[in-house]
Amino acid sequence: MQREQSIDILKNYDGFWDVIVIGGGATGLGAAVEAASRGYKTVLLEQHDFSKGTSSRSTKLVHGGVRYLQQGNVSLVLEALRERGLLVQNAPHLVRHQPFIVPSYDWWEGPFYGIGLKLYDMLAGKLGLAPSKWLSKEETKKRLPTVEPGGLIGGVIYYDGQFDDSRLAINLAQTLVDLNGTPANYVRVTGLQKAGHVVNGVIARDMETGDEMKVFGRVVINATGAFVDGVLKMDDPTAEALISPSQGVHIVLDKEFLPGDTAIMVPHTDDGRVLFAVPWRDKVVVGTTDTPVDQVSLEPRPLQEEIDFILTHAARYLTKDPVPSDALSVFAGLRPLVKAGGGKNTAALSRDHLIMISKSGLVTITGGKWTTYRKMGQDVIDQAAIVAGLEERPCKSEEMRIHGWLKNYDLHDPLHYYGSDALGIHKLQRENIKLARPLHGHLPYTGAEVIWAVREEMARTVEDVLSRRLRALLLDARASIEMAPLVAKLMAAEMKMNKKWQKEQVRAYTSLAQEYLLS
Protein backbone atom coordinates (compact mmCIF):
# COMPACT_ATOMS: atom_id res chain seq x y z
CA MET A 1 0.00 0.00 0.00
CA GLN A 2 1.81 3.14 -1.24
CA ARG A 3 0.48 6.69 -1.21
CA GLU A 4 2.30 7.62 -4.40
CA GLN A 5 0.36 4.92 -6.24
CA SER A 6 -2.98 6.18 -4.86
CA ILE A 7 -2.23 9.79 -5.81
CA ASP A 8 -1.19 8.62 -9.27
CA ILE A 9 -4.49 6.81 -9.73
CA LEU A 10 -6.45 9.85 -8.48
CA LYS A 11 -4.71 12.26 -10.83
CA ASN A 12 -4.89 10.06 -13.90
CA TYR A 13 -8.39 8.61 -13.57
CA ASP A 14 -10.68 10.64 -15.81
CA GLY A 15 -13.93 8.69 -15.40
CA PHE A 16 -16.54 8.51 -12.63
CA TRP A 17 -15.83 6.52 -9.49
CA ASP A 18 -18.80 4.45 -8.36
CA VAL A 19 -18.29 5.49 -4.72
CA ILE A 20 -16.31 8.36 -3.16
CA VAL A 21 -15.91 8.06 0.61
CA ILE A 22 -14.81 11.10 2.63
CA GLY A 23 -13.21 10.09 5.92
CA GLY A 24 -10.55 7.52 6.85
CA GLY A 25 -11.72 6.47 10.30
CA ALA A 26 -13.65 3.33 11.27
CA THR A 27 -16.85 4.40 9.50
CA GLY A 28 -15.25 5.56 6.25
CA LEU A 29 -12.95 2.54 6.02
CA GLY A 30 -15.86 0.19 6.72
CA ALA A 31 -17.93 1.84 3.98
CA ALA A 32 -15.08 1.81 1.44
CA VAL A 33 -14.18 -1.84 2.08
CA GLU A 34 -17.85 -2.79 1.79
CA ALA A 35 -18.19 -0.94 -1.53
CA ALA A 36 -14.99 -2.40 -3.00
CA SER A 37 -15.89 -5.92 -1.85
CA ARG A 38 -19.06 -5.66 -3.95
CA GLY A 39 -16.99 -4.72 -6.97
CA TYR A 40 -17.81 -0.99 -7.01
CA LYS A 41 -14.93 1.28 -8.09
CA THR A 42 -14.12 2.99 -4.78
CA VAL A 43 -11.90 5.80 -3.56
CA LEU A 44 -11.44 6.94 0.04
CA LEU A 45 -10.07 10.41 0.89
CA GLU A 46 -8.74 11.29 4.35
CA GLN A 47 -7.64 14.83 5.27
CA HIS A 48 -4.95 13.65 7.71
CA ASP A 49 -3.89 10.07 8.45
CA PHE A 50 -6.10 7.00 8.70
CA SER A 51 -7.78 6.89 12.14
CA LYS A 52 -6.12 10.16 13.18
CA GLY A 53 -9.22 11.17 15.14
CA THR A 54 -11.56 9.17 17.35
CA SER A 55 -10.80 5.85 15.67
CA SER A 56 -7.31 5.59 17.22
CA ARG A 57 -8.43 6.80 20.66
CA SER A 58 -10.97 4.20 21.76
CA THR A 59 -10.99 2.06 24.94
CA LYS A 60 -9.56 -0.74 22.71
CA LEU A 61 -12.67 -2.88 23.23
CA VAL A 62 -14.82 -4.78 20.75
CA HIS A 63 -17.92 -5.08 22.87
CA GLY A 64 -21.67 -5.46 22.87
CA GLY A 65 -22.08 -2.61 25.33
CA VAL A 66 -23.08 -3.66 28.84
CA ARG A 67 -24.30 -0.11 29.50
CA TYR A 68 -26.65 -0.21 26.53
CA LEU A 69 -28.17 -3.33 28.06
CA GLN A 70 -28.72 -1.36 31.28
CA GLN A 71 -30.47 1.31 29.20
CA GLY A 72 -32.73 -1.29 27.61
CA ASN A 73 -31.30 -0.87 24.09
CA VAL A 74 -31.37 -4.61 23.39
CA SER A 75 -31.33 -4.23 19.58
CA LEU A 76 -28.04 -2.28 19.67
CA VAL A 77 -26.51 -4.88 22.02
CA LEU A 78 -27.65 -7.74 19.76
CA GLU A 79 -26.13 -6.09 16.70
CA ALA A 80 -22.88 -5.28 18.47
CA LEU A 81 -22.49 -8.78 19.94
CA ARG A 82 -22.99 -10.31 16.50
CA GLU A 83 -20.42 -7.94 14.98
CA ARG A 84 -18.01 -8.70 17.82
CA GLY A 85 -18.21 -12.39 16.95
CA LEU A 86 -17.64 -11.71 13.24
CA LEU A 87 -14.64 -9.49 13.97
CA VAL A 88 -13.02 -12.17 16.13
CA GLN A 89 -13.33 -14.49 13.10
CA ASN A 90 -12.28 -11.95 10.45
CA ALA A 91 -9.28 -10.38 12.22
CA PRO A 92 -8.05 -12.91 14.82
CA HIS A 93 -4.55 -11.37 14.82
CA LEU A 94 -6.01 -8.13 16.22
CA VAL A 95 -9.08 -9.18 18.22
CA ARG A 96 -8.98 -11.52 21.19
CA HIS A 97 -11.03 -12.55 24.19
CA GLN A 98 -10.67 -10.30 27.24
CA PRO A 99 -11.86 -11.39 30.70
CA PHE A 100 -13.53 -8.69 32.84
CA ILE A 101 -14.49 -8.75 36.49
CA VAL A 102 -17.18 -6.59 38.06
CA PRO A 103 -16.03 -6.41 41.72
CA SER A 104 -18.88 -6.54 44.25
CA TYR A 105 -18.87 -4.57 47.48
CA ASP A 106 -22.62 -4.74 48.28
CA TRP A 107 -24.66 -7.92 48.76
CA TRP A 108 -27.06 -7.06 45.93
CA GLU A 109 -24.40 -6.37 43.26
CA GLY A 110 -23.46 -10.01 42.62
CA PRO A 111 -26.97 -11.27 41.83
CA PHE A 112 -27.92 -8.02 40.02
CA TYR A 113 -24.93 -7.90 37.67
CA GLY A 114 -24.74 -11.68 37.44
CA ILE A 115 -28.26 -11.86 35.98
CA GLY A 116 -27.54 -8.96 33.60
CA LEU A 117 -24.34 -10.57 32.32
CA LYS A 118 -26.06 -13.94 31.86
CA LEU A 119 -28.52 -12.09 29.59
CA TYR A 120 -25.49 -10.57 27.81
CA ASP A 121 -24.13 -14.11 27.23
CA MET A 122 -27.50 -15.32 25.99
CA LEU A 123 -27.88 -12.45 23.48
CA ALA A 124 -24.50 -13.33 21.93
CA GLY A 125 -25.82 -16.77 20.97
CA LYS A 126 -23.48 -18.92 18.86
CA LEU A 127 -21.03 -16.01 18.50
CA GLY A 128 -20.58 -15.79 22.28
CA LEU A 129 -17.11 -16.01 23.84
CA ALA A 130 -17.14 -17.71 27.28
CA PRO A 131 -19.91 -17.82 29.92
CA SER A 132 -20.02 -15.36 32.81
CA LYS A 133 -20.01 -16.65 36.40
CA TRP A 134 -19.85 -15.56 40.03
CA LEU A 135 -16.43 -15.56 41.73
CA SER A 136 -15.74 -15.77 45.45
CA LYS A 137 -13.75 -13.07 47.24
CA GLU A 138 -10.63 -15.29 47.10
CA GLU A 139 -11.04 -16.03 43.38
CA THR A 140 -11.58 -12.35 42.65
CA LYS A 141 -8.42 -11.33 44.53
CA LYS A 142 -6.43 -14.07 42.81
CA ARG A 143 -7.38 -12.73 39.38
CA LEU A 144 -7.21 -9.07 40.47
CA PRO A 145 -4.37 -8.93 43.03
CA THR A 146 -4.48 -5.11 43.20
CA VAL A 147 -8.27 -4.73 43.59
CA GLU A 148 -9.35 -2.79 46.69
CA PRO A 149 -9.93 -5.54 49.32
CA GLY A 150 -11.86 -3.48 51.90
CA GLY A 151 -15.50 -4.66 51.88
CA LEU A 152 -14.96 -6.88 48.82
CA ILE A 153 -17.53 -9.70 48.65
CA GLY A 154 -16.60 -11.27 45.32
CA GLY A 155 -17.10 -10.52 41.67
CA VAL A 156 -18.76 -11.49 38.41
CA ILE A 157 -16.47 -12.49 35.56
CA TYR A 158 -17.55 -12.10 31.93
CA TYR A 159 -15.83 -11.91 28.55
CA ASP A 160 -15.70 -9.34 25.78
CA GLY A 161 -13.31 -8.54 22.95
CA GLN A 162 -10.17 -6.43 22.90
CA PHE A 163 -8.38 -5.07 19.84
CA ASP A 164 -5.91 -2.51 18.54
CA ASP A 165 -7.96 0.22 16.87
CA SER A 166 -5.47 2.02 14.63
CA ARG A 167 -3.85 -1.26 13.59
CA LEU A 168 -7.28 -2.46 12.44
CA ALA A 169 -7.72 0.83 10.54
CA ILE A 170 -4.44 0.27 8.67
CA ASN A 171 -5.39 -3.32 7.90
CA LEU A 172 -8.75 -2.12 6.53
CA ALA A 173 -7.00 0.40 4.27
CA GLN A 174 -4.78 -2.47 3.05
CA THR A 175 -7.87 -4.63 2.56
CA LEU A 176 -9.31 -1.85 0.41
CA VAL A 177 -6.19 -1.96 -1.77
CA ASP A 178 -6.41 -5.77 -1.93
CA LEU A 179 -9.97 -5.29 -3.29
CA ASN A 180 -8.72 -2.85 -5.98
CA GLY A 181 -9.96 0.19 -4.09
CA THR A 182 -7.93 3.39 -3.68
CA PRO A 183 -7.28 4.88 -0.20
CA ALA A 184 -5.43 8.20 0.05
CA ASN A 185 -4.36 9.90 3.26
CA TYR A 186 -3.43 13.59 3.48
CA VAL A 187 -5.99 14.45 0.80
CA ARG A 188 -8.47 17.01 2.11
CA VAL A 189 -11.90 17.50 0.55
CA THR A 190 -12.38 21.28 0.29
CA GLY A 191 -15.67 21.33 -1.59
CA LEU A 192 -18.38 19.34 -3.34
CA GLN A 193 -18.98 19.36 -7.08
CA LYS A 194 -22.52 19.47 -8.43
CA ALA A 195 -24.31 18.97 -11.71
CA GLY A 196 -27.24 21.29 -11.20
CA HIS A 197 -28.29 20.58 -7.63
CA VAL A 198 -26.94 17.02 -7.51
CA VAL A 199 -23.56 16.14 -5.97
CA ASN A 200 -21.36 14.42 -8.54
CA GLY A 201 -17.91 14.63 -7.00
CA VAL A 202 -15.51 16.48 -4.75
CA ILE A 203 -12.73 19.04 -4.95
CA ALA A 204 -9.71 17.76 -3.03
CA ARG A 205 -6.28 19.07 -2.13
CA ASP A 206 -3.14 17.00 -1.79
CA MET A 207 -1.92 18.29 1.59
CA GLU A 208 1.69 17.39 0.78
CA THR A 209 2.01 19.24 -2.53
CA GLY A 210 -0.91 21.67 -2.42
CA ASP A 211 -2.18 20.32 -5.76
CA GLU A 212 -5.94 20.53 -6.28
CA MET A 213 -7.86 17.67 -7.87
CA LYS A 214 -11.41 17.24 -9.11
CA VAL A 215 -12.71 13.76 -8.38
CA PHE A 216 -16.00 12.70 -9.97
CA GLY A 217 -18.28 10.02 -8.55
CA ARG A 218 -21.76 8.56 -8.83
CA VAL A 219 -22.27 8.92 -5.10
CA VAL A 220 -20.38 10.73 -2.33
CA ILE A 221 -20.46 9.40 1.24
CA ASN A 222 -19.79 11.76 4.15
CA ALA A 223 -18.25 9.48 6.80
CA THR A 224 -16.16 12.06 8.62
CA GLY A 225 -17.12 11.26 12.22
CA ALA A 226 -17.01 14.37 14.41
CA PHE A 227 -16.57 16.48 11.25
CA VAL A 228 -19.76 15.44 9.42
CA ASP A 229 -21.45 18.80 10.00
CA GLY A 230 -18.64 20.59 8.14
CA VAL A 231 -19.21 18.47 5.02
CA LEU A 232 -22.99 18.93 5.33
CA LYS A 233 -22.43 22.69 5.24
CA MET A 234 -20.35 22.33 2.06
CA ASP A 235 -23.51 20.89 0.54
CA ASP A 236 -25.95 23.30 2.18
CA PRO A 237 -24.67 26.26 4.23
CA THR A 238 -28.01 26.37 6.08
CA ALA A 239 -27.88 22.70 7.15
CA GLU A 240 -28.58 22.12 10.84
CA ALA A 241 -25.94 20.43 12.96
CA LEU A 242 -26.45 16.67 13.06
CA ILE A 243 -24.16 15.71 15.93
CA SER A 244 -23.56 16.66 19.53
CA PRO A 245 -19.88 15.82 20.12
CA SER A 246 -18.84 14.19 23.35
CA GLN A 247 -15.29 13.78 24.61
CA GLY A 248 -13.90 10.58 26.07
CA VAL A 249 -10.57 10.61 27.92
CA HIS A 250 -8.28 7.71 28.85
CA ILE A 251 -5.24 7.52 31.12
CA VAL A 252 -2.52 4.91 30.55
CA LEU A 253 -0.76 3.49 33.61
CA ASP A 254 2.06 1.05 34.24
CA LYS A 255 1.18 -2.65 34.46
CA GLU A 256 1.91 -2.70 38.21
CA PHE A 257 -1.47 -1.03 38.83
CA LEU A 258 -3.30 -4.05 37.37
CA PRO A 259 -1.05 -7.08 36.87
CA GLY A 260 -2.36 -10.16 35.10
CA ASP A 261 -4.66 -10.35 32.11
CA THR A 262 -8.04 -9.55 33.69
CA ALA A 263 -9.76 -6.17 33.32
CA ILE A 264 -11.98 -4.35 35.82
CA MET A 265 -15.39 -3.04 34.82
CA VAL A 266 -17.14 -0.54 37.09
CA PRO A 267 -20.77 -0.55 35.95
CA HIS A 268 -21.88 2.71 37.50
CA THR A 269 -19.75 5.79 38.14
CA ASP A 270 -20.84 9.15 39.53
CA ASP A 271 -21.90 10.38 36.08
CA GLY A 272 -23.66 7.14 35.12
CA ARG A 273 -20.93 5.86 32.82
CA VAL A 274 -19.17 2.53 32.79
CA LEU A 275 -15.48 2.78 33.76
CA PHE A 276 -12.87 0.28 32.57
CA ALA A 277 -9.34 -0.55 33.64
CA VAL A 278 -8.04 -2.80 30.85
CA PRO A 279 -4.65 -4.49 30.36
CA TRP A 280 -3.41 -3.51 26.89
CA ARG A 281 0.04 -4.03 25.33
CA ASP A 282 1.67 -4.53 28.74
CA LYS A 283 0.12 -1.33 30.11
CA VAL A 284 -3.28 -0.46 31.64
CA VAL A 285 -5.84 1.77 29.92
CA VAL A 286 -8.29 3.46 32.33
CA GLY A 287 -11.36 5.35 31.12
CA THR A 288 -13.55 6.81 29.96
CA THR A 289 -15.38 10.10 30.42
CA ASP A 290 -18.39 11.51 28.58
CA THR A 291 -18.11 15.29 28.41
CA PRO A 292 -20.11 17.50 26.00
CA VAL A 293 -17.87 19.78 23.91
CA ASP A 294 -18.70 22.66 21.61
CA GLN A 295 -15.75 22.47 19.21
CA VAL A 296 -14.42 19.55 17.17
CA SER A 297 -10.68 19.18 16.76
CA LEU A 298 -8.20 16.67 15.36
CA GLU A 299 -6.34 16.93 18.68
CA PRO A 300 -8.90 17.26 21.49
CA ARG A 301 -7.40 17.94 24.90
CA PRO A 302 -8.47 16.36 28.20
CA LEU A 303 -10.02 18.69 30.76
CA GLN A 304 -8.72 18.76 34.32
CA GLU A 305 -12.07 17.57 35.69
CA GLU A 306 -11.93 14.52 33.38
CA ILE A 307 -8.47 13.59 34.61
CA ASP A 308 -9.57 14.05 38.23
CA PHE A 309 -12.68 11.92 37.59
CA ILE A 310 -10.70 8.98 36.21
CA LEU A 311 -7.99 9.10 38.90
CA THR A 312 -10.61 9.38 41.68
CA HIS A 313 -12.62 6.40 40.45
CA ALA A 314 -9.52 4.30 39.77
CA ALA A 315 -8.37 4.94 43.34
CA ARG A 316 -11.65 3.51 44.69
CA TYR A 317 -10.98 0.13 43.10
CA LEU A 318 -7.18 -0.21 43.14
CA THR A 319 -4.93 -0.74 46.16
CA LYS A 320 -2.37 1.70 44.76
CA ASP A 321 -4.01 5.06 44.11
CA PRO A 322 -2.76 6.54 40.81
CA VAL A 323 -1.65 10.18 40.83
CA PRO A 324 -1.00 12.46 37.83
CA SER A 325 2.72 11.65 37.73
CA ASP A 326 1.86 7.95 37.23
CA ALA A 327 0.20 8.65 33.87
CA LEU A 328 2.38 7.41 31.01
CA SER A 329 0.02 9.02 28.51
CA VAL A 330 -3.37 10.73 28.43
CA PHE A 331 -5.46 10.79 25.28
CA ALA A 332 -8.86 12.15 24.26
CA GLY A 333 -11.25 11.30 21.45
CA LEU A 334 -14.55 12.77 20.23
CA ARG A 335 -17.73 10.72 19.82
CA PRO A 336 -20.05 11.90 17.03
CA LEU A 337 -23.30 11.37 18.93
CA VAL A 338 -26.53 11.95 17.03
CA LYS A 339 -28.38 15.01 18.35
CA ALA A 340 -31.56 14.35 20.30
CA GLY A 341 -33.84 17.07 21.60
CA GLY A 342 -31.04 19.47 22.48
CA GLY A 343 -30.22 17.61 25.70
CA LYS A 344 -26.80 18.18 27.24
CA ASN A 345 -26.48 14.77 28.88
CA THR A 346 -24.38 13.02 26.24
CA ALA A 347 -24.49 9.72 28.15
CA ALA A 348 -28.17 9.52 27.15
CA LEU A 349 -27.68 10.39 23.47
CA SER A 350 -27.96 7.72 20.79
CA ARG A 351 -25.01 5.39 20.14
CA ASP A 352 -26.89 3.96 17.13
CA HIS A 353 -25.69 4.99 13.70
CA LEU A 354 -27.72 7.28 11.48
CA ILE A 355 -27.80 7.44 7.68
CA MET A 356 -29.14 10.60 6.05
CA ILE A 357 -29.58 11.37 2.35
CA SER A 358 -29.57 15.07 1.47
CA LYS A 359 -31.67 16.56 -1.35
CA SER A 360 -28.45 16.78 -3.39
CA GLY A 361 -27.85 13.03 -3.05
CA LEU A 362 -25.01 13.41 -0.53
CA VAL A 363 -25.11 10.35 1.75
CA THR A 364 -24.09 10.98 5.37
CA ILE A 365 -23.45 8.35 8.03
CA THR A 366 -22.63 9.18 11.65
CA GLY A 367 -22.86 7.76 15.16
CA GLY A 368 -22.06 4.14 15.89
CA LYS A 369 -18.83 2.68 17.26
CA TRP A 370 -15.84 0.60 16.19
CA THR A 371 -17.53 -2.71 17.04
CA THR A 372 -20.27 -2.13 14.47
CA TYR A 373 -18.11 -0.54 11.76
CA ARG A 374 -18.77 -3.41 9.31
CA LYS A 375 -22.55 -3.28 9.71
CA MET A 376 -22.45 0.50 9.32
CA GLY A 377 -20.54 0.01 6.07
CA GLN A 378 -23.06 -2.54 4.85
CA ASP A 379 -26.03 -0.30 5.66
CA VAL A 380 -24.60 2.84 4.08
CA ILE A 381 -23.50 1.09 0.88
CA ASP A 382 -26.99 -0.45 0.55
CA GLN A 383 -28.36 3.12 0.55
CA ALA A 384 -25.58 4.66 -1.53
CA ALA A 385 -26.00 2.04 -4.28
CA ILE A 386 -29.66 3.04 -4.62
CA VAL A 387 -28.80 6.75 -4.73
CA ALA A 388 -26.14 6.13 -7.40
CA GLY A 389 -28.22 3.68 -9.40
CA LEU A 390 -25.50 1.05 -9.10
CA GLU A 391 -26.12 -2.59 -9.89
CA GLU A 392 -27.46 -4.32 -6.80
CA ARG A 393 -24.84 -6.69 -5.39
CA PRO A 394 -24.87 -8.79 -2.22
CA CYS A 395 -22.84 -8.06 0.90
CA LYS A 396 -19.72 -10.23 1.17
CA SER A 397 -18.02 -8.69 4.21
CA GLU A 398 -19.54 -10.88 6.93
CA GLU A 399 -17.10 -13.70 6.26
CA MET A 400 -14.36 -11.70 4.54
CA ARG A 401 -10.89 -11.99 6.05
CA ILE A 402 -9.21 -8.68 6.82
CA HIS A 403 -5.65 -8.05 5.55
CA GLY A 404 -3.11 -9.72 7.82
CA TRP A 405 -5.52 -12.50 8.86
CA LEU A 406 -3.67 -15.09 10.91
CA LYS A 407 -5.22 -17.42 13.43
CA ASN A 408 -2.23 -19.29 14.86
CA TYR A 409 0.48 -17.00 16.16
CA ASP A 410 2.77 -16.54 19.14
CA LEU A 411 1.14 -14.09 21.54
CA HIS A 412 4.60 -13.33 22.98
CA ASP A 413 5.92 -12.21 19.59
CA PRO A 414 5.81 -8.37 19.65
CA LEU A 415 5.01 -8.48 15.91
CA HIS A 416 1.89 -10.66 16.21
CA TYR A 417 -0.31 -7.58 15.71
CA TYR A 418 0.82 -7.57 12.07
CA GLY A 419 -0.62 -11.02 11.46
CA SER A 420 0.69 -12.53 8.22
CA ASP A 421 2.63 -9.30 7.48
CA ALA A 422 4.99 -10.10 10.38
CA LEU A 423 6.92 -12.32 7.95
CA GLY A 424 7.89 -9.25 5.94
CA ILE A 425 9.15 -7.42 9.04
CA HIS A 426 11.14 -10.45 10.20
CA LYS A 427 12.71 -10.54 6.73
CA LEU A 428 13.80 -6.88 7.07
CA GLN A 429 15.35 -7.69 10.46
CA ARG A 430 17.28 -10.63 9.03
CA GLU A 431 18.56 -8.57 6.09
CA ASN A 432 19.79 -5.75 8.36
CA ILE A 433 20.57 -6.66 11.96
CA LYS A 434 20.47 -2.97 12.96
CA LEU A 435 16.73 -2.92 12.14
CA ALA A 436 16.13 -5.69 14.69
CA ARG A 437 17.33 -3.53 17.59
CA PRO A 438 14.75 -1.96 19.94
CA LEU A 439 14.16 1.75 19.34
CA HIS A 440 13.76 2.31 23.10
CA GLY A 441 14.38 0.29 26.25
CA HIS A 442 10.81 0.77 27.55
CA LEU A 443 8.96 -0.33 24.41
CA PRO A 444 9.26 -3.39 22.10
CA TYR A 445 9.41 -1.61 18.73
CA THR A 446 12.24 -1.98 16.20
CA GLY A 447 13.57 -0.04 13.23
CA ALA A 448 12.17 -2.65 10.83
CA GLU A 449 8.65 -1.62 11.85
CA VAL A 450 9.40 1.99 10.93
CA ILE A 451 10.63 0.95 7.48
CA TRP A 452 7.58 -1.31 7.03
CA ALA A 453 5.22 1.51 8.06
CA VAL A 454 6.68 3.78 5.35
CA ARG A 455 6.91 1.14 2.61
CA GLU A 456 3.67 -0.76 3.16
CA GLU A 457 1.35 1.28 5.41
CA MET A 458 1.39 4.83 4.00
CA ALA A 459 3.05 6.39 7.06
CA ARG A 460 4.14 9.91 6.08
CA THR A 461 5.19 11.55 9.36
CA VAL A 462 6.88 10.66 12.63
CA GLU A 463 3.47 11.08 14.27
CA ASP A 464 1.91 8.54 11.88
CA VAL A 465 4.53 6.00 12.93
CA LEU A 466 4.75 6.64 16.68
CA SER A 467 1.05 7.24 17.29
CA ARG A 468 -0.82 4.92 14.92
CA ARG A 469 1.49 2.35 13.22
CA LEU A 470 3.32 1.72 16.50
CA ARG A 471 1.37 2.76 19.59
CA ALA A 472 4.24 4.44 21.42
CA LEU A 473 2.51 7.82 21.90
CA LEU A 474 -0.40 6.22 23.74
CA LEU A 475 1.68 3.71 25.70
CA ASP A 476 4.46 6.00 26.93
CA ALA A 477 4.48 9.55 25.57
CA ARG A 478 7.83 10.46 27.15
CA ALA A 479 9.58 7.39 25.72
CA SER A 480 8.04 8.15 22.32
CA ILE A 481 9.58 11.66 22.37
CA GLU A 482 12.98 10.08 23.03
CA MET A 483 12.42 7.72 20.07
CA ALA A 484 11.44 10.49 17.63
CA PRO A 485 14.94 11.49 16.35
CA LEU A 486 15.85 7.90 15.43
CA VAL A 487 12.43 7.32 13.82
CA ALA A 488 12.83 10.54 11.79
CA LYS A 489 16.30 9.45 10.66
CA LEU A 490 15.06 6.03 9.52
CA MET A 491 12.07 7.56 7.74
CA ALA A 492 14.20 10.23 6.03
CA ALA A 493 16.55 7.60 4.60
CA GLU A 494 13.60 5.56 3.31
CA MET A 495 11.65 8.58 1.94
CA LYS A 496 14.75 10.43 0.65
CA MET A 497 14.14 13.43 2.90
CA ASN A 498 16.83 15.86 4.14
CA LYS A 499 17.96 16.82 7.64
CA LYS A 500 15.73 19.88 7.65
CA TRP A 501 12.72 17.56 7.24
CA GLN A 502 14.02 15.40 10.11
CA LYS A 503 14.38 18.38 12.46
CA GLU A 504 10.94 19.73 11.58
CA GLN A 505 9.36 16.30 12.12
CA VAL A 506 11.01 15.87 15.53
CA ARG A 507 10.01 19.40 16.57
CA ALA A 508 6.38 18.93 15.49
CA TYR A 509 6.13 15.50 17.10
CA THR A 510 7.69 16.62 20.39
CA SER A 511 5.27 19.54 20.60
CA LEU A 512 2.32 17.19 20.02
CA ALA A 513 3.48 14.43 22.38
CA GLN A 514 4.07 16.81 25.28
CA GLU A 515 0.31 17.41 25.29
CA TYR A 516 -0.14 13.72 26.17
CA LEU A 517 1.81 14.14 29.41
CA LEU A 518 0.34 15.25 32.74
CA SER A 519 3.64 16.24 34.30
pLDDT < 50 stretches: 341-350
The value of Rg in angstroms is 23 Å
Q: In total, how many beta strands?
A: 21
| Class from helix and strand fractions | alpha+beta
Percent range for β-strand residues: 15-25%
Write down the overall mean pLDDT. Answer: 93
End-to-end separation in angstroms reads 38 Å
Helix content: 25-40%
Detailed description of the structure:
By secondary structure, the chain is of the alpha+beta class. It folds into three domains: 3-54 and 166-242 and 348-399, FAD/NAD(P)-binding domain (3-Layer(bba) Sandwich), CATH 3.50.50; 86-161 and 244-337, D-Amino Acid Oxidase, subunit A, domain 2 (D-Amino Acid Oxidase, Chain A, domain 2), CATH 3.30.9; 416-514, Alpha-glycerophosphate oxidase, cap domain (Helicase, Ruva Protein, domain 3, Orthogonal Bundle). It is built from 16 helices and 21 strands. The chain has helices spanning 3-12, 26-37, 66-70, 74-90, 109-124, 137-143, 165-178, 228-235, 304-317, 373-388, 422-431, 447-456, 462-469, 472-475, 477-495, 499-514, and strands spanning 19-22, 42-45, 61-62, 96-104, 133-136, 154-162, 182-184, 187-195, 198-206, 212-216, 220-222, 243-254, 263-266, 275-280, 283-287, 291-292, 329-338, 353-357, 363-367, 438-440, 443-446. Strands 3, 4, 5, 6, 12, 13, 14, 15, 16 and 17 form a ten-stranded mixed β-sheet that branches. The longest helix has 19 residues, at 477-495. The radius of gyration is 23 Å and the shape is globular.
